[in-house]
Design brief:
Belongs to the CutA family. GO terms for molecular function: copper ion binding. This is Dihydroorotate dehydrogenase. The protein is an alpha+beta fold and about 110 residues long. About 30% of the residues lie in helices and about 40% in strands. The chain has a four-stranded antiparallel β-sheet with strand order 2-3-1-4. Helix 1 crosses helix 2.
């Protein structure tokens, strides 16, 4: 296993279809070893000077820290939002086999 650092990338999307489209692109392009999609996420947030409320889908990508800049650019190129939420969260510890899987699947 490499000395690479690993992370989860948290991405919100307008709906499950957009999450699937982005997820397939991330995995197909080896920017993520895999993704999880959680549909019907309720979101409350500030946008254009007022509090908004709506339904979204959540996409969580498993990847290496060094890949995150390329992953963010790919998400931005596919995403419908003007300012998409794409944030990386470090994996501090994890199953050796799981982290090795990420190593084997991500370029």
């Amino acid at each position: 296993m490499s000395k690479e650092k690993y992370c989860l990338v948290y991405i919100t999307t307008k709906d499950k279809d957009e999450a699937k489209k982005i997820g397939f692109e991330l995995v197909s392009n080896r920017l993520a070893a895999g993704v999880n999609i959680i549909d019907k996420l309720e979101s409350i947030y500030w946008w254009e000077g007022k509090v908004q409320n709506g339904s979204e889908a959540l996409l969580i990508a498993k990847t290496k820290e060094s890949i995150v800049p390329a992953l963010i650019e790919k998400v931005k190129s596919l995403h419908s939002y003007e300012v998409p939420c794409v944030v990386s969260l470090p994996i501090n510890e994890g199953s050796h086999d799981f982290l090795k899987w990420i190593d084997n699947e991500v370029n």
